[in-house]
Design a protein that fits this description.
The protein is of the alpha/beta class and 238 residues long. The chain has a six-stranded parallel sheet with strand order 7-6-5-8-9-10. Strands 2-3-1-4 form a four-stranded mixed sheet, with helices on both faces.
Length: 238
């Protein structure tokens, strides 16, 4: 069974770091495991106190000491961190793009199927690994990239090993997307000026980032589904 760990940081607006002025730091961390058909998500919820003691604001040295005592799995390929707005400010951090392992897990969990795959190349996306994962299971693969020459060798490998012709273009509109079938778009932060009208009706878009423009793009498109790691969190906590 494949597992993914999600650690979410939520601000407790009435909480305090310790009950006594010189007492020990108090931590509230919940942990549970949610099983799917063949996968499982380990969810850690960390409640960050808004105050250090009573209604006293945090001093920087106390905040550092408190953060160092939080015991959760370290962020990594199979461990994703999510924050509410106040938690981002408290920790001074933002969400990292979803790893390849996290992306594939999300797609399995949401049971996403497709006939055509389009990848909007991003420096954080492991595009070649994504293509290798799905080249046997799809009729069409397109890549949008500023530098089409960057995928010259990949095109040759896919053609020689699988007889698959990879479609590469600098804009979404220049791809030769099949008119029929289900289309999956995988995107990071860079959308290459893609517009809602360019997304075929019935498209599924999976984003590896939670703070980009992809969600708003999908909201303006016709019959397009959107998923990111926050969608997984909503699914397992519903």
């Amino acid at each position: 069974m494949e597992e993914m760990t999600v650690v979410r940081f939520i601000t407790d607006k009435d909480g305090c770091g310790r009950r006594k002025r010189r007492g020990s730091w108090q931590y509230r961390i919940e942990n549970r495991k949610i099983s799917g058909r063949d996968d499982a998500v380990c969810l850690f919820t960390v409640y960050l106190p808004a105050y250090s003691y009573k209604k006293k604001p945090w001093k920087e040295k106390d905040k550092i000491a408190y953060i160092q005592g939080i015991e959760v799995p370290p962020e990594g390929r199979n461990v994703c961190y999510l924050y509410d707005e106040e938690a981002r400010a408290f920790l001074g951090r933002r969400e990292e793009p979803l790893s390849l392992e996290g992306l594939l897990f999300l797609m399995r969990w949401q049971q996403i199927t497709f006939d055509a795959l389009i990848v909007l190349q991003d420096r954080e996306l492991e595009t070649e690994a994504i293509l290798a994962e799905y080249v046997r299971d799809t009729r069409y693969i397109g890549v949008v990239s500023e530098g089409e020459e960057a995928f010259f060798e990949t095109k040759e490998v896919l053609l020689e090993e699988y007889g698959f012709l990879l479609d590469v273009a600098a804009e979404f509109a220049k791809l030769h997307v099949p008119a029929k079938g289900k289309t999956l778009v995988i995107a990071g932060a860079e959308l290459y000026g893609t517009t809602p009208l360019q997304l075929p009706s019935g498209t599924t878009l999976v984003s590896t980032v939670v703070s980009g423009e992809a969600k708003r793009l999908c909201a303006r498109a016709k019959e397009v589904r959107y998923f990111d790691v926050k969608s997984l969190l909503r699914d397992i906590t519903a």
